[in-house]
Structures are given as structure tokens and as C-alpha cells.
Design a protein that fits this description.
With about 290 residues, the chain is of the alpha/beta class. The protein is about 50% helix and about 10% strand. It has helices at about 15-25, 45-50, 80-85, 105-115, 160-175, 185-210, 220-230, 235-245, 245-270, 270-290; strands spanning about 10, 35, 55-60, 70, 95-100, 120, 120-125, 145-150, 180. A six-stranded parallel β-sheet has the order 3-2-1-4-5-6. Strands 7-8-9 form a three-stranded mixed β-sheet, with helices on one face. The radius of gyration is 21 Å and the shape is globular.
């Protein structure tokens, strides 16, 4: 059993990711107390508490005042507002982290809105589901997955405190059974735009394109369903992700469009050799990636 990592942990947002975190923390006994912060009247908040993901459910930001670690698990577009709400209540030495899918803008918001007595360390656990809500939460959601960690710039008189906070956050994710990788926030956003945000955009485009022939849906088989599974994700969450990672996503959409145009040209020219080369290259890269997982 992993050793306790923090005395008291607050989770802001108790949907799938937040509730799964609570279940995992309690199952592994990584804290004495898990506090969930949610909106007044939130069904998700009540469900997460009833499922045992939280020791205490609250609706006030002040509930974090004695917490050693605060984890922000709401849609990334709400982070700046959350940072401003919790800023007055963070105790000296508190560590704040998150589960957000974008990081450059989040790190800027944290530096601007959180007090210097607290330390923000960006986290992005690469785990989740197209399903949403605490009713789908499970304690093993993070097991064996990768967590990308974006440390703050360590400098000045707070360097030792910052370095210690980074180490503690990394230890926390490892205690949940995750692998970790430290990465610059700009590079992080470029990577996840390619491997996560672009696939979601493409899956959504594919569904919307195929919807022009709805009668064909009676013949849908595994290929279409596998390729478009992620298009079933929460539109509000993904809108926030796309908007907070616009620059990187637009660059990859341009790259995707270039590849699509290349394939269109080969088909239009009846160039079977070029089509085969295109498909073979994709197959070989996919098999190499799969063999490394």
C-alpha cells in the first residue's frame, strides 16, 4: 500500500475525473480526509459523496482552508475563475494542481491569480472516458496511465519550496499507480493537440460528414464506431479544450488538412501507387506505436 501523501486533499469538481480521484485516494489511503467542492444543488456532487468518493461535500471555496493539496477537476475554461475563488483561502504552503488537458494558458492563470504562499504544479493525467459523471467513476481509472507534469519555473528564494512541491505532486500521481513525465507547458500543448485534441476534432468531423447520409447508419460496423467513439465526449468540456489550445490545434488541423488533400489528389488522379504508399505509411506508424504501448 502506498504511503500517505497528504493529510487533507480538496477536489474541486466531482465529475468522472474528480470522483475517480476521490475513490482512488480513499482506496489507497493517500490522505486522512478528502473534501469535494461542487456547485450548490449539483447532482454530481451528491452522487460522488454517496458513492464514497468524498469524506465531506461542500459548496464553499473556504472549505479548502486547511487542505495541503487542492486539485482542480472542472472544465479548463473555468480554471481562472476557480483560481480567483480559492486564492484567499489557500493556506501557506498549500499545493494546487489540476487534471486539465491544456497547460500554457493554465500556468499563466495560476501565476497571475494564485497567491505566492501557495505553489501551483500543472498536471494532466492521460486518463478518462467519453462517458461523464461520477456514476461512471472508478478507483482504477488512473492505474497504469501516464500523467504529464508541468512544473512552475523554479527560481529565487522559493526554489526549494517549489522543487519540493513538484516532487510531492509527482509522488502523488505515482502513488495512484500512474507513470509520470515532466514537460514544458508549451510542448505539452503541442503534443496533446496532436495525439488527443486533433483526434477528437477529426472524429467529430467524421460523424457530422457521415450524418449527410443518415440511412447508411443501419450498416455501421466496428470500424466507424471505434474511429468515432471519442466524439461522444462532453461538448462543453471539449469546447473549452479547443479554445484554450487554439494555436496548437489550428497548426495540427492545418497539417491534417494537408494530408487529407494529399490523399484526395492521389485518388482523383487514379494513382493507386500513391494511395497504397499513403496507407502503408500510416499502417506502419500505427503498428510501431501499438507495439510500444
Amino acid at each position: 500500500m502506498p504511503e500517505k501523501t497528504f493529510q487533507s486533499i480538496a477536489i474541486i469538481g466531482t465529475g468522472l475525473l474528480g470522483a475517480s480521484l476521490g475513490l482512488a485516494i480513499k482506496e489507497r489511503k493517500l490522505a486522512d480526509r478528502v473534501i469535494g467542492i461542487g456547485r450548490p444543488g449539483s447532482v454530481s456532487h451528491t452522487t460522488a459523496h454517496s458513492r464514497g468518493a468524498l469524506d465531506h461535500a461542500d459548496t464553499e471555496p473556504s472549505a479548502i482552508k486547511n487542505c495541503d493539496l487542492v486539485i482542480v477537476a472542472v472544465n479548463v475554461g473555468k480554471f481562472a475563475e476557480i483560481f480567483r475563488q480559492i486564492a484567499p483561502h489557500l493556506k501557506s504552503g498549500a499545493i494546487v494542481t489540476d487534471v486539465g488537458s491544456t497547460k500554457e494558458r493554465v500556468m499563466r492563470w495560476a501565476a497571475r491569480d494564485l497567491p505566492r504562499r501557495a505553489i501551483f504544479v500543472g498536471s494532466h493525467p492521460m486518463a478518462g472516458s467519453e462517458k461523464r459523471g461520477p456514476e461512471f467513476a472508478r478507483a482504477d481509472l488512473y492505474q497504469n496511465a501516464l500523467c504529464l507534469i508541468c512544473p512552475p519555473k523554479v527560481r529565487g528564494k522559493n526554489a526549494d519550496r517549489q522543487a519540493n512541491a513538484i516532487d510531492r505532486v509527482e509522488h502523488f500521481w505515482k502513488a495512484l499507480g500512474m507513470r509520470t513525465y515532466r514537460i514544458d507547458p508549451v510542448l505539452h500543448d503541442r503534443w496533446v493537440a496532436a495525439i488527443s485534441h486533433l483526434p477528437h476534432a477529426v472524429a467529430s468531423v467524421l460523424v457530422n460528414a457521415a450524418a449527410k447520409e443518415p440511412e447508411a447508419f443501419i450498416a455501421i460496423a466496428g470500424g466507424f464506431m471505434d474511429t468515432t467513439r471519442i466524439a461522444a465526449g462532453d461538448p462543453a468540456m471539449w469546447t473549452d479544450i479547443f479554445m484554450t489550445n487554439r494555436k496548437a490545434l489550428l497548426a495540427w488541423l492545418k497539417e491534417f488538412s494537408g494530408n487529407l488533400k494529399k490523399l484526395q489528389t492521389a485518388i482523383r488522379r487514379n494513382d493507386a501507387a500513391a494511395v497504397s504508399e499513403f496507407l502503408t505509411q500510416a499502417r506502419d506508424v500505427r503498428e510501431k506505436v501499438h507495439s510500444q504501448k
